[in-house]
Amino acid sequence: MSITLTFRSDCMRIEKTLKCILLDDELPSLRFLKMLCEQIPGLEVVKAFNDPAVLLKEYKSLNFDFCILDIEMPQFNGFDVAKELEDYPIVFSTAYKQYASDAFDINAVDYMRKPISLSRLQQAVLKVEQVINSRSAESSPFAQFNTNKGRAILYFSQINYVQIAEVDSRDKTVFLGDGSTILLKNISFDKLLALLPEQDFIRINKKEIIALKIVKFFSADVITSSLVDEQDAAILFSLGESYKKSFLEKFA
Length: 252
What we know:
Layout: E1 5-7, E2 12-14, E3 18-23, H1 27-37, E4 43-49, H2 52-58, E5 66-69, H3 78-84, E6 90-94, H4 100-105, E7 110-113, H5 118-139, E8 142-147, E9 150-155, E10 159-164, E11 172-176, E12 181-184, H6 189-195, E13 201-205, E14 208-211, E15 215-218, E16 222-228, E17 234-238, H7 244-250
Parallel strand pairs: 3-4, 3-5, 5-6, 6-7
Antiparallel strand pairs: 1-2, 8-9, 10-11, 10-14, 11-12, 13-14, 15-16, 16-17
GO molecular function, one term: transcription cis-regulatory region binding
Organism: Sphingobacterium detergens
InterPro entries: CheY-like_superfamily, LytTR_DNA-bd_dom, Sig_transdc_resp-reg_receiver, WalR-like
């Protein structure tokens, strides 16, 4: 399964359809949630259920990517359903705040409090997208990107580091192990990090992501890489203040 989503700050667009199922025993809440989902272009509601027993009976015959579940329901609660759907990303939607800890204990992707706004739902879908892409990256050694030369397959092992492009900040320049570069078109760092294997790459400042394999030495604010420039000098990278903690955790 390969899902690619593209986001802008003012709206949310999905290049390939992301499919969900909904569950809420209260019909007004279910209709409202379905209406919100339908306002996100490219997000498809495969089926909306108001009975958890019916969902558990039918879900295996449905083609979907994630679930949005209510929690307090008769017969089966949302946690019972989530355990059955453990292979799918789960987003909980509930009027109660006391279940948040339990929800994240079972690795729920998000926990939305009713009443839900469109922007809050968009945030949850973005988190789902990141989980799906992360799972895809873990199981695949490559991803497909839109580049200045067309659609391209890029193997993660080829990548040394990524920089914001000089001409257009929406684009990213990828520096490859063979010394060549490729320009990724209109992709954010957040989107790129969702595709790259988390254990192998990290953002180090506002303008760069690096592969951990190129790190040779590092100090409080400078990373010395194993790469060299045309003068045979080591290529240095700046370690931004707000990125230090996550960078150091990689080497803890």
